[in-house]
Amino acid sequence: MKKTIVFVTAALLCQLAFAQSPDPQPAAPAKGESAVTGKREHHRKHGHEKREMMKALNLTEDQKAKLKAMNEGNKEKKQAILNDSKLTDEQKKEQIKEIKKAQATNMQSVLSDEQKAKMKDLRKKMKEGRKHNKQEAGEPAPSVAPQQ
After folding, report:
1. How far is residue 89's CA from residue 95's CA, in Å, rounded to a whole number?
2. pLDDT by residue for the chain (148 residues), tens digit each?
3. What b/e string do you get for 110-121 counting C-beta neighbours within 10 Å, with b at 16 or more?
4. d(CA 57, CA 53)
5. Of 32, 36, 52, 109, which one has the greatest count of Cβ atoms within 10 A?
C-alpha cells in the first residue's frame, strides 16, 4: 500500500513538473519546405506591418470602406484561383500576381497624393528593416544586379 501511494505521488509530481515547463519552440521549416506554420508566421508579421501602415496613413472612413471592399473582392478571386484544379501551380501564381498588381493600382486611386508619398516612404523603411533583420539573422543580403 505504501509503495502504491509513493508511486502515485511520484507520478503526480512528475506530471506537475512537466506541466510547468515552457513549450519548446517549433522547429524551423527545412529550406524549400512549405510549412503551414512558417507561412502563418510570415503572414502574421507582414499583416502587422500592413495594419501599422494603414494607421499611419490616417485613412478616412470612406477610404477604409473602399479598401475593405477591394480586399474582400480580391480575397474571393484569389480563393477561386487556388481552388481551380484546372490551373497549374505556375498559372495560379501568375494570376494571383496579376490580382496583386491590380490591387496596388486600385489602392493608389483611393489614396491622396500625400498618403501615396507617405506610403512609399513607409514601404521603403519596412523593406530596409527587413533587410537589416535578415543580415542580423546571418542570412546573406540579396545581391542586386546593376540595371542596364
Report:
1. 10
2. 777 777 777 666 657 665 555 555 555 555 544 444 555 565 555 567 778 878 888 889 998 899 899 989 999 999 999 999 999 999 999 999 999 999 888 888 989 999 889 888 988 888 888 787 777 777 655 555 455 4
3. bbeeebeebbee
4. 6
5. 52
Q: How far from 42 is each of 36, 48, 101, CA to CA, in Å?
A: 10, 10, 20
The CA-atom distances, in angstroms, between 79 and each of 22, 30, 75, 101, 147 are 37, 27, 6, 16, 36
**Which value, to the nearest 10 degrees, does the dihedral of the CA atoms of residues 24, 25, 31, 36 take?**
100
pTM: 0.53
Cell numbers at residue 130, please? 527587413
